[in-house]
Amino acid sequence: MWDVLIDAIIDGAKIFPFIFLIYVLMEIIEHAKGKENIERILSGPFAPAVAGVLGAVPECGFSVMCSKLYDKGLIKIGTLIAAFISISDEGVIILLTDGAKVSDVILLIVIKIVYAVIAGTTINALLSKKDKVHVCPETDDCIECGAHHEKGLDKYFLHPLKHAVIILAYVVVINFALGAAIYLIGEDNITEFMNKSSGVQPLITSFVGLIPNCGSSIILAKAYTTEILGFSGLIAGLAANAGIGALILLRSKNTFKKAFLIIGLMYLLGAILGYAVMGVAAIIG
After folding, report:
1. Whole domain around residue 108: which residue ranges?
2. What value does the mean pLDDT take over residues 253-277?
3. How far apart are CA 31 and CA 141, in angstroms?
């Protein structure tokens, strides 16, 4: 169990720089002169494509960054979904180091990016009237807590650092709880269950992928490299996986209710992609 705690702390340490940087970024946006231009970029038609491509980079901090941007109304839900779909957390790294074919990994990444962009763009278009981006209020108050800071050091370092530490503590505690649950259930038991349910693997792996802990993507990747999972099950699980980003949505009172909708969409979209890939593979032969 000590290993679980250490892993939770290490995972938190990995994303801490990203958490800190996103708070600095929000302060910069808050006080930017060209707020209208920033709003056009963040809410533009190419925002899901940018999020989808950047999300494919194997770094767990990006999901946290996007969740905070969405929490503060800086990006639309479709853009967030695009980032979440393309994110594979630790999965890609495990696949490459565990002997998966490079061609399979490249195919996985390409499919996820294309699917992410299509899904994100479609969702933004459908919700264009309801889902608006608001870059910043007219005041110079912090968009996180309303505090007002004049000095540069306080505004761009100490204040973002304070918020980042609070988020870090939250992530470590929740990650430890989830890691402990996986530890108690047993990774072998989870993979064995997936192995016995090959026909419904996308439904099961999408659910596993929803677990906001890097352990879920590692389980999925290892199950694939040991031939327990097929490619359709792998891609369904990793498409539904949003890293620790879902935890940030659940923590905020602004996004708590919407978080369940987003998590449900992630599960549905992951399962649909898995079955689509399964169908194409059956046709090809």
Report:
1. 2-284
2. 91
3. 9
